[in-house]
Amino acid sequence: MSKTALSGVLLTIGSYFLFSLQDASVKLLVTNLPVFQILFIRSVVIFTGCLLIGRQQLVDKAIHSPVLKPLFLRNLLLLSAWLCYYNAARDLGLAELTTFYYASPVLITLLAVPILKEDVPAIRWLAVALGFIGVIVACNPIASHGLRLSLPVGLALSAAVFWAISTVLLRKTALHEKTMVQMTISSGFFIVLTGAACAFFWTPVSLKELLLMSSTGLFAGIAQFALFESFRRAPVSILAPFEYTSLIWAFILGFVIWGDIPRHNVFFGAGLIFFAGLVILFGERLIKGVSPPPSAS
């Protein structure tokens, strides 16, 4: 592996570590504060950072972006995902939350057929089945000591659905827009919607809580930059498997901060979901490698 590609891998791992820190910070905050208030401060920090870097030129690009309207729809789905995900964080451990999140890549494969009109090969359907089984195993709805299909579990799985749909829409409409522009539009959209809720339901916060809320925006902003830079340094096929390192970070942070030790079924379910991702990544590459070349005519 070249030094450039290796730096891309390290940036990817670092970005998902920061995303995991963001999730851990929000989980600490949601015990006393509403989710929309946390998202408001987070969005203000990201939006301010974008303006400091891009200034008026970035604002003009955001206002005249050709994907402005599609991004509004995508951001509405993302806001729904965040609200579901972090409300579920009140009752679920960080490892369980992250495990359920990784149902979204499986759902993306399913949604690619009706929305993107993609031809999904059999190997992807195998991965979908494995990922679905992994989610069921992680929930363990049958055993008396399992998570069961409760409201928090339903919210976490709903977040995965919203994320999957928003990701498919991103592939269809916004792949050619710069990351800074997307971040500016998204954070601005979140400020307007969550700010409207804060105007009526603001909860007083301590300095410690305000700093922790601000850190979520700092973590998320740096993580998005690092992830974007990693795509410039290494092929996506190399970086994709390292997305699953956030499962490892979630398990570690959950243990260090809350002393959480996920049940064995969560480990096993996470392993199945991880394997489903590898099947999609390496299975199709193997098929392409052994497929016969097109005949000359």
Task: Report on this structure.
77% of the residues lie in helices and 0% in strands. The chain contains twelve helices and no strands. It has helices spanning 3-29, 35-63, 68-88, 94-101, 104-111, 122-139, 151-173, 179-201, 207-233, 236-239, 245-258, 264-290. The protein is globular. It starts with a helix and ends in a 7-residue tail after the last helix.
Output the number of helix runs. 12
User: Which descriptor suits the 3D outline?
Assistant: globular
Portion of residues in beta strands equals under 5%
The unreliable regions are: 291-297
Ends: how far apart? 38 Å
- Provide the gyration radius in Å: 20 Å
Helix-strand topology string: HHHHHHHHHHHH
Helix/strand-derived class?
A: mainly alpha
Tally of extended strands? 0
User: Which percent range fits the helix content?
Assistant: over 70%
Average the pLDDT over all residues and give the rounded result.
78
Secondary structure elements and pairings:
Blueprint: H1 3-29, H2 35-63, H3 68-88, H4 94-101, H5 104-111, H6 122-139, H7 151-173, H8 179-201, H9 207-233, H10 236-239, H11 245-258, H12 264-290
List keywords for this structure.
mainly alpha; single chain; disordered C terminus; 12 helices; 297 residues
